[in-house]
């Protein structure tokens, strides 16, 4: 496949392996590698949330080759996509153009975009792995915690005492990856 199509395929795959991390965050400058985790604030919602949309994703072995391939050698950012494209919008536009080429190459009908990965991850998690919608919302960083899902309950104070460790996301994501690996 062509260079653009290959990059799109790699980015879609990397995104899926990182719990459907979107392209703005793959391109962004705040993702950090801490041990075996990538921690970042989701750019789309960080300014609107008290927790600044902080999320930490365990790096599963499947992601390592692509992380190594696109790792920023200068360590200014997590990934080197900013060296290929001067702005996130150009990166996203190019990836989506590659997705369109990839869809044609594969002979699939839907408009393939980077958001397909987020929808695909969520659908597999829900429909094939039995993960609740609330847990999926947390994994995709649509909400900061279960507390956001049921504000006003008697557990509100208790939840304030619990340190968020992200281990539930790790377990859910491993289930999704294992399902895909065993299915295909």
Structural class by secondary-structure content? mainly alpha
> How many β-strands, per DSSP?
3
Total DSSP helices: 10
How far is it from the N-terminal to the C-terminal residue, by CA? 21 Å
Gyration radius, in Å: 17 Å
Topology:
Blueprint: H1 3-17, H2 23-27, E1 32-34, E2 37-41, E3 54-58, H3 64-70, H4 81-84, H5 88-106, H6 115-128, H7 133-139, H8 146-149, H9 156-161, H10 167-183
Helix pairs in contact: 1-5, 1-6, 6-10, 7-10
What does this structure look like?
The protein is mainly α and 184 residues long. It is built from ten helices and three strands. The chain has helices spanning 3-17, 23-27, 64-70, 81-84, 88-106, 115-128, 133-139, 146-149, 156-161, 167-183; strands at 32-34, 37-41, 54-58. A three-stranded antiparallel beta sheet has the order 1-2-3. A hairpin with a 2-residue loop joins strand 1 and strand 2. Helix 1 (3-17) crosses helix 5. The longest helix has 19 residues, at 88-106. It is globular. The two termini are 21 Å apart. Mean pLDDT is 85; it is low at 152-163.
């Amino acid at each position: 496949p062509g260079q653009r199509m290959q990059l799109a395929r790699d980015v879609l795959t990397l995104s899926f392996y990182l719990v459907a991390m979107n392209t703005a965050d793959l391109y962004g400058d705040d993702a950090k590698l801490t041990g075996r985790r990538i921690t970042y604030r989701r750019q789309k919602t960080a300014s609107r949330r008290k927790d600044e949309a902080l999320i930490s994703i365990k790096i599963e072995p499947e992601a390592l080759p692509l992380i190594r391939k696109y790792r920023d050698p200068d360590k200014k950012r997590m990934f080197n996509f900013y060296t290929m494209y001067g702005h996130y919008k150009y990166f996203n536009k190019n990836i989506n153009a590659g997705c369109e080429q990839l869809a044609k190459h594969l002979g699939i009908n839907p408009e393939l975009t980077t958001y397909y990965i987020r929808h695909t991850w969520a659908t597999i998690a829900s429909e094939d792995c039995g993960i609740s919608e609330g847990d999926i919302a947390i994994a995709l960083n649509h909400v900061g915690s279960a507390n956001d899902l049921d504000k006003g309950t008697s557990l509100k104070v208790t939840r304030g005492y619990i340190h968020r460790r992200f281990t539930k996301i790790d377990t859910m994501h491993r289930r999704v990856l294992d399902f895909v690996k065993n299915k295909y």
